[in-house]
């Protein structure tokens, strides 16, 4: 008689073999602020990531488990808010089964999603989150950018040594990890170089603050010769405007959070001459950058900014690592990322023990409404 139990084992093995060789979809998630007070960050990041994915797919995709597969990118909007980032990340992991996440952009959002990725063992590469704590969530968490202890020091050094500043003032959002972290480093370094912090003014919630005049008035009374604004572009453009309105006219510096066309659109003449640290200059003459800039222009009809470039690099990190380990198995993918060395458009990338790349920063200056390259600062 035919006994179905007898064939269970061989069928099981056969199924297992079939499923090993099965087509496996390569899905990578992007968690970006596509709307909200940092929306240009999200739009640029999405475009940068998409360009990297399209280039890989134009070459036929990536070989995984012996089969060449196209890559599918899925984007979720975190609206610039940690709770939204949390939901976006959960969705990508449990609903869409992504093998890795490119995101988030704002440090506070990366801090919200890093523990989720870590416990789900989904490698996360933040393209742009510079706060020191982001990669401390665990060994599945990487980033494509330099960190704020470096970035804050770059501007402190530039202000003290290049601009000759000795009396610096700071105005920052104390409810945001990025702004707080940068302000802290700047203070420490500027003081270490021999300067004095003559005013240290805070506000809360830059997305909803419209009036900075109380803080700026205290700053003016302290007679600073430099003002550090380590916030995002929308708030800092208004801060520079209102500073001029109360007669506070002095050199101003900021961080990578200024990299948006909106800085000039909002601040106009009031942001002229201001300088900020950044990850990328489209005027870089390296071949890899020139090719990227020209492909990006052809595709999107605009120049790439730091966000687009970093998201492009983060996507390349993930896809190159998948190609190298030829599997989507989480530990193998994590180890492949860890061991990677990649010539990115934002510089050469290899990871240190804390999964941070060691990279140079550039200083850019707003001149005639454009970002003009000033100098490159190598890591210490
Ligand atoms: N570094 C910012 C953060 O951590 C994000 C950012 C990166 C913004 C690059 C602009 C350009 O929140």
What does this structure look like?
The protein is of the alpha/beta class. It has helices spanning 8-20, 39-58, 82-95, 107-120, 148-162, 177-193, 213-221, 233-245, 261-267, 287-300, 306-325, 330-338; strands at 26-32, 62-64, 67-69, 71-77, 100-103, 124-126, 141-143, 167-173, 196-203, 226-229, 252-254, 275-278, 341-344, 347-350, 361-367, 370-377. It folds into 2 domains: 11-146 and 285-359, Response regulator (Rossmann fold), CATH 3.40.50; 149-278, Response regulator (Rossmann fold). Helix 2 packs parallel to helix 11, helix 5 crosses helix 6 (177-193) and helix 8 (233-245) packs parallel to helix 9. The model is unreliable at 1-21 (pLDDT under 50). 43% of the residues lie in helices and 21% in strands. Bound molecules: phenylalanine (PHE). Phenylalanine (PHE) is lined by residues 41, 105-107, 128-131, 178, 256-257, 259, 279, 306-307. Phenylalanine (PHE) binds next to helix 11.
Which features does this protein show?
single chain; 380 residues; alpha/beta; Rossmann fold; 2 domains; seven-stranded mixed sheet; 12 helices; 16 strands; 43% helix; 21% strand; elongated; binds phenylalanine
Q: What is the count of helical runs?
A: 12
Query: Termini separation (Å)?
Result: 78 Å
Count of distinct strands: 16
Largest sheet, strands/sense/barrel? 7 strands, mixed
Order of strands across the biggest sheet? 9-8-10-11-12-15-16
How would you summarize what this structure contains?
This protein has 380 residues and is α/β, with parallel strands linked by helices.
């Amino acid at each position: 008689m035919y006994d179905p139990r007898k064939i269970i084992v061989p069928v099981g093995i056969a199924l297992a073999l079939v499923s090993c060789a099965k087509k496996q979809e390569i899905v990578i998630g992007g968690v970006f602020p596509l709307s909200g007070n940092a929306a240009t960050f999200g739009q640029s990041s999405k475009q940068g990531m998409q360009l990297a994915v399209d280039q890989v797919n134009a070459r036929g995709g990536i070989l995984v488990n012996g089969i060449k597969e196209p890559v599918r990118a899925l984007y979720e909007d975190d609206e610039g808010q940690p709770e939204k980032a949390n939901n976006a990340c959960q969705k990508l992991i449990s609903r869409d089964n992504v093998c890795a996440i490119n995101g988030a952009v704002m440090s506070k959002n990366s801090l919200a999603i890093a523990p989720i990725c870590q416990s789900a063992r989904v490698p996360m590469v933040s393209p742009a989150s510079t706060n020191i704590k982001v990669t401390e969530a665990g060994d599945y968490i990487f980033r494509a950018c330099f960190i704020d202890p470096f970035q804050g020091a770059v501007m402190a050094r530039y202000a003290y040594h290049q601009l000759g500043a000795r009396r610096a003032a700071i105005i920052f959002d104390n409810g945001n990890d990025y702004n707080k972290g940068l302000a802290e480093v700047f203070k420490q370094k500027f003081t270490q170089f021999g300067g004095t912090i003559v005013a240290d003014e805070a506000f809360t919630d830059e997305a909803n603050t419209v009036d900075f005049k109380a803080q700026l008035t205290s700053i003016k009374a302290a007679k600073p010769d430099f003002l550090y604004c380590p916030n995002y572009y929308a708030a800092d453009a208004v801060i520079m405007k209102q500073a001029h309105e109360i007669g506070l006219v002095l050199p101003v510096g900021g961080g990578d959070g200024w990299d948006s066309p909106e800085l000039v659109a909002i601040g106009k003449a009031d942001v002229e001459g201001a300088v900020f640290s950044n990850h990328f200059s489209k005027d870089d003459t390296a071949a890899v950058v020139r090719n990227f800039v020209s492909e990006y222009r052809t595709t999107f009809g605009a120049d790439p900014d730091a966000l687009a470039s970093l998201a492009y690099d983060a996507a390349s990190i993930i896809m190159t690592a998948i190609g190298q380990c030829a599997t989507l198995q989480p530990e193998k993918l994590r180890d492949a990322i860890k061991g990677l060395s990649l010539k990115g458009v934002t510089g050469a990338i290899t990871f240190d023990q804390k999964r941070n790349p060691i990279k140079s920063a550039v200083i850019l200056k707003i001149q005639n409404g454009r970002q003009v390259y000033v100098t490159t600062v190598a890591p210490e």
